[in-house]
Amino acid sequence: MSVSEQMITMARWQTKEGTLDEVLRLTAELRSKSLTEPGCLGYEVFKPLDDDDDHGALLLIERYRDHAALQSHRQSAHYRELVVDRILPLLESRHVELLGPRE
User: Fold this and answer.
1) Does some domain include residue 17?
2) Is residue 70 part of a domain?
3) Alpha-carbon span 47 to 84, nearest angstrom
4) Which residues pair with 44 in a beta bridge?
5) 87/23 Cα distance (integer angstroms)
6) CATH number of the domain that 14 lies in?
7) Nearest one of 8, 12, 45 to 26, comparing CA atoms
8) Which domain covers residue 47, as residue numbers?
9) CA count, 13 A, side-chain hemisphere, 81
10) Where are the extended beta strands (E) located within 16-83?
C-alpha cells in the first residue's frame, strides 16, 4: 500500500441540543464496525476538552487505504444504518473534507 493512495476523511459534526450522548453512543458503535473493514486504517473521534455542553461539537478523523476503501465504507450496511438513518437526524450541521497526501 502506498501512502500516496490513502484517503483521510475529516468530519466536523455539531449535534442538536440534548443529543450528544446518543450521537457519541452511536459513533462508538460505528467506529467499532468501521475498524473491522479491511480498508479502514484508523477511526478516531474527538470532542473539545472545554465543551461540557450536551449540544456539542465532534471531530471525526478516518483513514482509508484508498478511494475504493472509502467508497466501500460509505456503502456498508452499518454506515447507512448508523450514519444516514440514525446520526444525521441528530446533527445540527455536518462538514466533511476529503484529504489525500500531496506529492
Assistant:
1) yes
2) yes
3) 21
4) 61
5) 6
6) 3.30.70.100
7) 45
8) 3-98
9) 8
10) 40-46, 57-64
Lookup: cell for 74: 460509505
- Whether 39 and 31 have beta carbons less than 8 Å apart is answered as no
pLDDT tens-place string over residues 6-23: 999 999 999 999 999 999
In 16-66 the beta strands, taken as DSSP E runs, fall at 40-46, 57-64
C-alpha cell at 26: 452511536
Q: What integer pLDDT is reported at residue 102 of this predicted model?
A: 78
- Beta-bridge partner residues of 59: 12, 46
Query: What amino acid is encoded at 84 in this protein?
Result: V
pLDDT, residue 91, reads: 97
3-state helix, strand, coil in the chain (%, to 5): 40, 30, 30
What does residue 96 show for φ and ψ, rounded to 5 degrees? -120, 130
Tens-digit pLDDT profile for residues 46-93: 998 876 666 689 999 999 999 999 999 999 999 999 999 999 999 999
Q: pTM of this prediction?
A: 0.88
